[in-house]
Design goal:
alpha/beta; Rossmann fold; 5-stranded parallel β-sheet; 6 helices; 20% strand; binds adenosine-5'-diphosphate
Length: 158
């Protein structure tokens, strides 16, 4: 069975992430979304809130599941027997960082492939951090996230 993981902070999950998830789910028989327990950045939502939002967002997608993980991404990939790590690439924001990460992952775990999917044109400028900033300043973010995430964001920044 072809298995891939899609790791990230998902603080919170956006329509850009969901686009990558939907497309990656067509390439692999099973896609496991890995929600980092402790990413190296400050978070708005707790780990439980982040994974719950992801689970709710992918509830109708068959063969897609979400789990929390901590430690090395490649260790998580090995643990769930994944052959690939999926990442999303936005035009300018992600390339250098993703390239560095991919090189590191390849070094640690040469048997696991890094599969980068290009972000859709309409999600090129969508990031969880920008979204949080806009929500904190009172902007309506409904067009960028699933409905339940927009509600959770509103509650959180109130
Ligand atoms: P991380 O902390 O690993 O960057 P994120 O939750 O910010 O976690 O992102 C997870 C993955 O999704 C990364 O590969 C990131 O580049 C990608 N991503 C983030 N936003 C978008 C978007 N709007 N469109 C496509 N991919 C995205």
């Amino acid at each position: 069975m072809t298995i891939a993981i899609y790791p990230g902070s998902f603080d919170p999950i956006t329509n850009g992430h969901l686009d990558i998830i939907t497309r990656a789910a067509k390439l692999f028989e099973k896609l496991i979304i890995g929600v980092y327990d402790r990413p190296n950045k400050s978070l708005l939502f707790t780990t439980e809130e982040r994974v719950e939002m992801v689970k709710q967002s992918v509830a109708t997608l068959p063969r897609v599941e979400a789990r929390v993980f901590s430690g090395l991404t490649v260790s998580f990939a090995r643990e769930v027997k994944a052959q690939a790590i999926v990442r999303g690439l936005r035009m300018s924001a992600d390339f250098e960082r993703e390239f560095d990460l991919a090189m590191m992952h390849k070094e640690l775990s040469p048997e696991i492939e890094i599969v980068c999917l290009m972000a859709d044109l309409k999600y090129q400028f969508l990031s969880s951090s920008l979204l949080k900033e806009a929500a904190e300043l009172g902007a309506t973010v409904d067009g960028f996230v699933p409905k339940h995430v927009a509600i959770a964001l509103r509650k959180k920044v109130k």
